[in-house]
Amino acid sequence: MKTFTLTRPDDCHLHVRSGALLKAVLPHTARQFARAIIMPNLKPPVTTVAQALVYRDEILQAIPADLSFEPLMTLYLTSATTLEEIERAAQSEHIYAFKLYPAGATTNSDAGVADVTSIYSLLAALEKQDIPLLIHGEVTDTECDIFDREKQFIDQYLIDIVKHFPNLRMVLEHVTTKEAVQFVESANSTVAATITPQHLLFNRNAMLSGGIKPHYYCLPILKRETHRQALVQAAISGNAKFFLGTDSAPHLTHLKVNACGCAGCYTAFGAMELYAEIFEQANALDKLEGFASFYGADFYRLPRNIGTITLQKQTWTIPAQYDEITPLKAGEELTWKII
């Protein structure tokens, strides 16, 4: 296959930051994705509808004139979130979900929830208003091994959440383990998951073998090869519960290459090229359109996009830097390119 055309996709988990960084990275997303679910973990976090609308305007102003792109906004769920704010979110045409970060789980998550069981009244309100809950599914207990935090979150919290709120639509973001895949597969139809390119491409050896490689460090952290294989099988399965979410997370290089480097992989520069390579390696390019273009839109009850993008079989080298950001696989080759 020399070229491959698919319905223009959506990125159902994206960080675009703000200010100069936003302007630097947004064109990479807008050239390939029609829409993206925008993460709210700025400093300060986006916790109200009013803040989200201001942020949305900033994103719209950063879209290049020759590209079309729609940011789908989310709110950061905290213990201080009010029932009134949830109702305002339900009434807004621009708010698509609330994001749950366990406090301290990842970048800019300090304002997150320390005890998930303490916000059940808020989850009940989300269920009533039919607003999806997006979950960074990791415990933050220091006694829990970092490679077990996702499984522990499922066992400790998620099973109970699904039981108590069976009609709450929820996405277990950036799943990384076979246990997470099995949980989503066995849960009811309201539970879905996003999968990133880095978790499909790499196991933890890529980050740790032969020296620590900070640009492969993300949270949830890369896992064993058996988990990577389970993710690939879920992505290519045609199961509509699994869809594309890059979790592309730009950080300036000096903040990644640091004594305490930031978590996050920058993949927006070539997200669809990365996914195409993954699906081709699994002999499943025919499954990419559903994963990238249909299932996420269906979950969020959005119309499927009308336009298309075309990828061509073409080898190119990933630049070493994009505006002081080191991309994933910097200096390496990809075999597909958007034309």
Task: Describe it.
This protein has 339 residues and is an alpha/beta fold. The chain has one domain: TIM Barrel. The protein is built from twelve helices and eleven strands. The strands form two sheets. An eight-stranded parallel beta sheet has the order 2-3-4-5-6-7-8-9. Helix 2 links the parallel strand 3 and strand 4. Helix 3 runs parallel beside helix 4. The chain is globular, with a radius of gyration of 19 Å.
Which outline best applies?
Answer: globular
**Per CATH, which architecture?**
Alpha-Beta Barrel
Would you tell me which CATH topology applies?
A: TIM Barrel
Residue-averaged pLDDT, rounded? 96
How many strands in all? 11
Summarize the amount of helix as a percent range: 25-40%
Treating each run of at least 4 consecutive H or I residues as one helix, how many helices? 12
N-end to C-end Cα span = 15 Å
Order of helices and strands: EEHEHEHEHEHEHEHHHEHHHEE
* Percent strand: 15-25%
Strand order of the largest sheet: 2-3-4-5-6-7-8-9
**The level-1 CATH class:** Alpha Beta
Radius of gyration: 19 Å
Low-confidence stretches: none
Largest sheet, strands/sense/barrel: 8 strands, parallel
Looking at this structure, what is the CATH superfamily?
Metal-dependent hydrolases
Q: Topology of this structure?
A:
Blueprint: E1 3-7, E2 10-14, H1 19-30, E3 35-38, H2 49-62, E4 70-77, H3 83-91, E5 95-100, H4 120-129, E6 133-135, H5 149-164, E7 170-172, H6 178-186, E8 191-195, H7 197-201, H8 205-208, H9 225-235, E9 242-244, H10 253-256, H11 271-281, H12 288-299, E10 308-317, E11 333-338
